Amino acid sequence: MSIFNTSETDIATFFLIGIPGLESANIWVSIPICLMHIVAIMGNCTILFFIKMEPSLHEPMYYFLSMLAVSDLGLSFSSLPTMLRIFLFNAPGISPNACIAQEFFIHGFSAMESSVLLIMSFDRFIAICNPLRYASILTSTRVIKIGLVFSLKNVLLILPFPFTLKHLRYCKKNLLSHSYCLHQDVMKLACSDNKINVIYGLFVALTGILDITCIFMSYMLILKAVLGIASQNERLKVLNTCVSHIIAVLIFYVPIISLSVIYRFAKYSSPMVKILMADVFLLVPPLMNPVIYCVKNQQIRNLILMKLCQKYS
């Protein structure tokens, strides 16, 4: 217990945790976690490869999909090092500087993924509600500018996190709640006033709520436009173009919302539930997004099948 009950001197190491009660089975837990990371990385790299190499995919929708793949790769690579250390090598210790750097990248790529899902909802809105002007509105230059603006916005949004955490003093507690570092988790360990972190963390959370609100409004407008189509077959055909994006939105936001509800209304629930829900948030979107878009998108699916047929013919 001595490593968790520290004195008033500044602590030099934080300790992450795996899955409570399954410490003896860490090596077995590492197998599915490693497989999920490998599949996620290979899947997103495959999408980026085909979008780059295939001229027919040089369209706004696929450029936005490539941004989503980059965000997913960022999330995978940000969480992978500490998860491997804990589950594969049983090494839960991490320096405060490394922990703060990890939380910056995790929150940064999470914010980027939220922004990309928002952009993709606008893309679907323009494609369905104003199809004749779609190509003139979303030109390649404009798509690049949109990507750069949102990337800069997210960097500036998350950039204060490491600086505010660095100004806190950590002298009593050093046990974190997950197998990776998060801002809200690290700031709770501080023995100095963390009011600024709480307020700014709330502001960042509100930007995420704004993203999902705008996505919801986009789909309300899309639904209104679809209901104006006379043919039922045409309605289904139009809605089918949104299915992949809707699933991606649900996969990303449902774990976040569920985790927030658990922390707010079920404070005394099992720590296992909170840990697993947080792990789902980081592991599942990067894993499932490539699968969803490869299965639902005919162009990408046909290209992959064609490459596989050429390889084995």
Describe this entry's structure for a reader.
This protein is mainly α and 313 residues long. Helix content is 74%, strand content 1%. A two-stranded antiparallel sheet has the order 1-2. Helix 3 packs antiparallel against helix 6. It is globular and about 65 Å long. Mean pLDDT is 86; it is low at 1-7.
Topology, element by element:
Blueprint: E1 14-15, H1 26-53, H2 60-87, E2 93-94, H3 96-129, H4 134-137, H5 140-158, H6 160-166, H7 183-187, H8 195-227, H9 232-240, H10 243-265, H11 271-296, H12 298-312
Antiparallel strand pairs: 1-2
Helix pairs in contact: 1-2, 1-11, 2-3, 2-5, 2-11, 3-5, 3-6, 3-8, 3-10, 10-11, 11-12
Observed structural traits:
313 residues; two-stranded antiparallel sheet; disordered N terminus; OR51/52/56-like
